[in-house]
Amino acid sequence: MASVALKSFVGLRQSSTENHRSSIASLTKPLSSTQIHYRRLNVVAGKSSPKVTGRNLRVAVIGGGPAGGAAAETLAKGGVETILIERKMDNAKPCGGAIPLCMVGEFDLPLDIIDRRVTKMKMISPSNVAVDIGRTLKPHEYIGMVRREILDAYLRDRASAAGATIINGLFVKMDKPTEKYKPYVIHYNSYDGKAGSAGKKVSIEVDAVIGADGANSRVAKSIDAGDYEYAIAFQERIKIPADKMQYYEDLAEMYVGDDVSPDFYGWVFPKCDHVAVGTGTVTHKPDIKKFQLATRLRARDKILGGKIIRVEAHPIPEHPRPRRLAERVALVGDAAGYVTKCSGEGIYFAAKSGRMCAESIVEGSENGKRMVEEADLRKYLEKWDKTYWPTYKVLDVLQKVFYRSNPAREAFVEMCADEYVQKMTFDSYLYKKVAPGNPLEDLKLAVNTIGSLVRANALRKEMAKI
Amino acid sequence: MSSSMALFSSTTPHLSSFSSSSAKTHLPNNPFLSFKPQRHLLSGSFRATENGSGAGILVEENKAPEPKEASTGNGAPVADDVADSLLKFEDPKWVSGTWDLKQFQKDGTTDWDAVIDAEVKRRKWLQDTPESSNNDFPVVFDTSIIPWWAWMKRFHLPEAELLNGRAAMVGFFMAYFVDSLTGVGLVDQMGNFFCKTLLFVAVAGVLLIRKNEDYDNLKKLLDETTFYDKQWQATWQDEKKKE
Question: Which stretch is the leader sequence (chain B) (predicted)?
Answer without folding.
Answer: none
